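Sat 14:20. Reprocessing the chain from the morning session after the first attempt stalled halfway. Input below, unchanged.
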Amino acid sequence: MKDEQSKLANSIEKYKDIFFSFLYRDEIYPGVKKIKGFSIRGILSVILESLKQEFIAVFKKNKSIINGKIWLYVESINQLKALEPLLDIENSILVTNSDNLLSKNINSSIVKLYQPTKLKHRALRFFKLSQHKKLFKENFKAHLNTIIKYDGVYEGLLDVLKKHKPIGIVFSNDHNAFCRALRVAAEDCKIKTVYLQHAAVTDQFPPLKFDLSLLDGQDSFDKYKRAGSVRGKVKLIGMTKFDEYFHLINRKRNVESIGLALNNGDDFDTYFEIFSKLNKRFEKMKYYIRFHPSIEVNKINVPDFFIISYTNKETSFDFLANVDALFSGNSSIHLEATLMNIPSYQIKNEKDVLKDYYGFIQNKLIEEVNLHELFELIEVIRKNKPEVRYKAKYYNAVIETKYDGFSTIKVKNEISSVLKNLFINKSIRN
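Finished this time. Tokens:
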């Protein structure tokens, strides 16, 4: 009886870790909010899709090339871009569970991670949904589709890891449920885990639980420490995604072009009206505009004087390479602009409940301005563009060091130092 209770308590703790985002951040993460809610149709959709994938997994087998390798685990294009540069680390390989990512055919070397025993574990756990009731309590029904989708994943991944025995696993996401299940399973199999930050973080992220966490800078580390106790080593390595744009840092003394980055929730018409007036006053100025990837630009009547930056064609850094000053709402693009030595300003929005979501204003990375102040501000900076890049050192630890623009090298060195001895020792044992 005690053994059964111990097993139950252990299983609940595992899934408590895996379901962190759904248990504690279900009103914050967009991805979680999107799928929250109960409906018979939604439940059936999740079940059918899960069964489809799992039947395929029973007949498909992972290639032996993933055995004994360093897995670079990715689930999105952004994660892929973050980890792709690490492929020249000896014995590394890209691995994914995402059919959506594979369908985009962005990198043919990505290997699909199949879980042939997940269906078995689902069947064994079918009458144990009461475990999750202890976790979710009154929110159990609202997250039932999520529970059905991920129940049994952890146990299936344990079997996968025991079979393929990777040296280590490198993640670039710490709150996705599948990523968390893979990390928990890796810990139980004594497999080293590494986390590489690939985007701005907030205080709402889960506590770090990796053998090695590679963070952009002190800001990220401070936020993770506020989130909870940190497990494993932490190294501040700068931003790898910035390396290829280091040579494009803005060294100009004047402002000849202005960028406007808009998100969902922004009042587009108000911005268009103000910038139309700016265009009339500063006729020689160029105006670039970029919308959040989730916004359908073709449905928006954008004024002709704007040069549109399409998110499916160029990165935010490509967009920023064309501008000398940036205006936006509550967005992480402010940090990227500052890294490029582009003065960036957050436009005040009284309706924005997030306010200073990333802490950029509080930490004096950027300034906040009202829309009606833009005319005077542009008049001041257009002939005397301020130097701002030094302000980003709190966010990017390698600024003004020998690794400035070479963070990827630092990452490779750190990962190799953690995993190299494991590979050597494993080779000796074999």
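The longest strand covers residues 209-215.
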